[in-house]
Structure formats: structure tokens, C-alpha cells
Design goal:
Structural class: alpha/beta
Radius of gyration: 21 Å
Strand content: 15-25%
Strand order of the largest sheet: 1-17-16-15-14-2-5-6-7-8-9-11-10
Largest sheet: 13 strands, mixed
CATH topology of the largest domain: pyruvate-formate lyase- activating enzyme
Number of helices: 17
Shape: globular
Mean pLDDT: 94
CATH architecture of the largest domain: Alpha-Beta Horseshoe
CATH superfamily of the largest domain: tm_1862 like domain
Number of strands: 20
Low-confidence stretches: none
């Protein structure tokens, strides 16, 4: 395995979009972004809605998300004004837009009070067509869940909660500045089950400071006693040169690349032994969960929200730094909250950092999407969809794939290109063989392990 790590533990995309954000070269106007969104609405097709709540009460040193540290929940009032203005602008540009799912992420969505949650849900459902029973997920920081928040989310139609666990080990928690005892999470999960939420997700992170194979095995064992329907097992990307607060983590405390891989493989084995199914590159789900069913039925999707069971032509992101996509047009909101405030005052005049996909981008996206979601690409389905011959069109790309074939990480037959079980950990690397932007030198990404 060491020779594979030396070759493959390199910066590589996570492919929540294609082209990936570092490859975007366009400026996209509000009108250009609204055009495909309006067409989707007019045709009665659906979109996913993501809302970014950037506020946190304290800074976690491992965090790579776009966050704003505030102590008082009143700080969110002005931000909700801005979100409402943005939502109003998109609803007027794409009237009648139907939603297939809603996701609140952060930051910390449970920074909001119950009243603020009701306000946010209210204007989203007023501006967009959103039946009460559509999939609705919210990320929670277990340390800051307050009285009435869970009940309010259930009342609003939230079906799935995602808890940021990361690691249960006290030394690891101290090293990342996130003290969160197992007993606190256990009590919170008990309350969530009592309120009859449909699904519970745990976010765990491997490769954190002070983490060992033994300590993380204990974290996994504790997580399994709570039996969440889904588990996301993310790799920690230590980037102190890009995230100044990560300098608070000592390099001496970081596990080696080999140790990090051992931690992941041991955790993966434990999840599979406990009855979870592997979904994509880093998710696990119980067989009855919608995500596992979507993978088995060949309809798993991957967007800026990660893996999802919903297949939509658009993902509309509201809030600071949020990224949107509609029929191959991508755009990103301002990354700084002051800039977002200015943007929300006149969204229709905005010009975004973004990308308008070419036909070649769309072709390559279909291959990368199928590899990331299903672990295989059907050549017959590709040929029929695009009226092209897969082997001829990707002749040069298949040369890049040859190393993976020789090392039994992928197979290339007359009928398909597929990732082997051994290659699943490196599906990002395999997908990159078909990424023309990556092959031309766009390499600003986290490492594969």
C-alpha cells in the first residue's frame, strides 16, 4: 500500500462539481444564472435548495468551512434580512420554482433561535414551491443545541439531522478546540429519536491531531452504539498556509499518511461489519436508508451538498459563499459577509465568479459523476446518450487510466470502466483521469488521503 500512497496521495478534486471551482474562469451575471433556473421552473422541474448559516459561537481549529464567530444570536437577524432579499430576487427571476429538497448547512444552523428558524423556513417556502414532506436536512453542533430547537425543526418538516461529531476522544477534542463528551451526544440522540426524525447522520473525521488507530476505533464503536442511519467519514485536510487558525494545531500531533490510511481502513471495515453499506467514497448508510437505496438503484447523485438521493437539474445556494448550479451554469456568492451584505442589497446587479459549461465539460461530467456515484461507467449508455464512441473519445484519458489498471484499482472492459473495491479509496484519482482541466494543471485541492 505504501507505493500506492506515494503515487496517489496528491492534491485531487472531490468532484462536487465539474468543472471544479479552481477551473472556473468566467464571470456570470445574475441574468445569465437566472436564465436556466427560469427554464427549469417553467418546465416544472425541481431544484435543491441549500442555505448557508455561517455563524458559530466558537472556532474549531480543524474547520475548513466559511464561518463567522459571534456570541449573540441577534447577529443573525440582519443576515436573515439579506437571505430573504436574495431568495426574493431568485423567486422573481424563476417564478414557481419547485424544490426537491432543502438543506441548512454552516457554520452552525442551530445558532438560530426557534423564532429565527421559523422565519427562515417561512420565507423559503413563500418564495419557492416546497411541499411540507420533501426531504429537509439540517446540520447541528451538538454542543449548542438549545431548548425548543429540535421541536421547532420537527414542526417545520425537517426529516434528517446531521451531527458534527468528528471524534469522541478527549485528547483529540482538546487538540482541535472542540470539547464534546460522548454522554452529551448520546442524550441528544435519545431526544432526536423521541421526536421521531426519519434519519440521523454523523460526521466523523479521520486524520485529526492526537488521533490513532486505537482511539478512533473507540470513537467508531461508540458511534455504532447510537446506530445513525448514515455516517460520513471525511478526511481532515491540514492546510495551515490557507487557514490561519489551523496553525494552532501542532504538526507534531498529526498522524502520518500511513497511520491516517490505517485509521480510515479500520473504520471502514467496522462500519461494513456492523451492516452499513459503502456509498460513494466516504459515506456509509444502513441498507434501509434512502442514500443506500439510491446507490443500489443507480440514482445516487453528487452535488455541492455532497451525496444525495435526489436528482435535480439545479442546486440553488443562498447565503454567503454558497455555490449554485443550473443546467451546467455555476456561480458562487461573495465569500465575505460584508460583501454578501452589499450583494443582497441589489442581487439582480451582481456578477458572480462562475463557469458556463461547454459541451465537452458536460460529456466529461457525466463520466466523472458516474464513477464518483456508482463506481462504474457504462460505455453503451454513454454512446447512446452522446452519440459518441467512448473508447475513441477518451483514448488519451484511457492512457492516463492504464496505471490504475495495472495496479488493480480499476478495470476497462468492452462494456465499462469500473473502480475495483481496492480502488474505491482512490476514486477521486481515477476520476481525475477524465478531468481535462486537472490534466492541464489545475491542482488546488486537498490530498487524496
Amino acid at each position: 500500500m505504501n507505493h500506492l500512497l506515494k503515487r496517489l496521495n496528491i492534491p485531487v478534486p472531490r468532484y462536487t462539481s465539474y468543472p471544479t471551482v479552481p477551473a472556473w474562469k468566467n464571470r456570470v451575471s445574475f441574468a445569465e444564472a437566472a436564465r436556466p433556473l427560469a427554464a427549469i421552473a417553467a418546465q416544472g422541474d425541481q431544484a435543491a435548495l441549500y442555505v448557508h448559516i455561517p455563524f458559530c459561537q466558537s472556532l474549531c481549529w480543524y474547520c475548513g468551512c466559511n464561518t463567522v464567530i459571534r456570541k449573540q444570536t441577534s447577529a443573525a437577524d440582519a443576515y436573515l434580512d439579506q437571505l430573504e432579499a436574495e431568495a426574493d430576487a431568485w423567486s422573481r427571476a424563476a417564478p414557481g420554482l419547485r424544490l426537491a429538497e432543502i438543506h441548512w448547512g454552516g457554520g452552525t444552523p442551530n445558532f438560530l433561535t426557534p423564532e429565527q428558524m421559523r422565519r427562515l423556513d417561512g420565507f423559503c417556502r413563500r418564495f419557492f414551491r416546497a411541499p411540507h414532506n420533501i426531504p429537509f436536512a439540517v446540520e447541528l453542533d451538538p454542543r449548542t443545541v438549545r431548548e425548543g430547537q429540535l421541536e421547532t425543526l420537527r414542526e417545520l418538516g425537517c426529516h434528517r439531522l446531521s451531527l458534527g461529531i468528528q471524534d469522541f476522544d478527549p485528547q483529540v477534542q482538546e487538540a482541535i478546540h472542540r470539547i464534546q463528551p460522548f454522554e452529551l451526544v448520546e442524550a441528544l440522540c435519545s431526544r432526536i429519536r423521541q421526536l421521531d426524525f426519519d434519519s440521523l447522520n454523523f460526521d466523523l473525521i479521520y486524520g485529526l491531531p492526537k488521533q490513532t488507530k486505537e482511539t478512533f476505533a473507540d470513537t467508531v464503536a461508540k458511534a455504532l452504539t447510537l446506530r445513525p442511519e448514515r455516517i460520513a467519514l471525511f478526511s481532515y485536510a491540514h492546510l495551515p498556509a490557507q487557514r490561519a487558525h489551523m496553525k494552532l494545531i501542532s504538526d507534531a500531533d498529526m498522524p502520518s499518511t500511513e497511520e491516517k490510511l490505517e485509521i480510515f481502513l479500520a473504520a471502514r471495515e467496522a462500519f461494513l461489519a456492523a451492516g452499513y453499506e459503502a456509498v460513494g467514497m466516504d459515506h456509509f448508510a444502513l441498507p434501509s436508508d434512502e442514500l443506500a437505496r439510491a446507490r443500489r438503484e443507480g440514482r445516487l447523485n453528487r452535488t455541492f451538498m455532497g451525496y444525495t438521493a435526489q436528482s435535480t437539474r439545479a442546486c440553488l445556494g443562498l447565503g454567503v459563499s454558497s455555490i449554485s448550479e443550473a443546467d451546467g451554469v455555476f456561480w458562487q456568492n461573495p465569500r465575505e459577509i460584508d460583501d454578501y451584505q452589499s450583494f443582497s442589497a441589489a442581487p439582480e446587479k451582481a456578477e458572480f465568479h462562475g463557469c458556463v459549461s461547454t459541451e465537452e465539460d458536460r460529456i466529461r461530467h457525466s463520466v466523472i459523476h458516474d464513477l464518483m456515484c456508482q463506481g462504474r461507467v457504462s460505455k453503451a449508455a454513454f454512446n447512446q446518450r452522446f452519440a459518441l464512441d467512448f473508447d475513441s473519445y477518451f483514448a488519451a484519458d484511457r492512457e492516463a487510466l492504464s496505471w490504475f489498471l495495472l495496479n488493480d484499482l480499476a478495470v476497462d472492459t468492452t462494456s465499462e470502466v469500473a473502480v475495483t473495491p481496492a480502488g474505491q479509496l482512490f476514486v477521486r484519482n481515477i476520476s481525475a483521469c477524465f478531468d481535462a482541466h486537472y490534466q492541464s494543471g489545475v491542482r488546488s485541492f486537498s490530498k487524496a488521503v
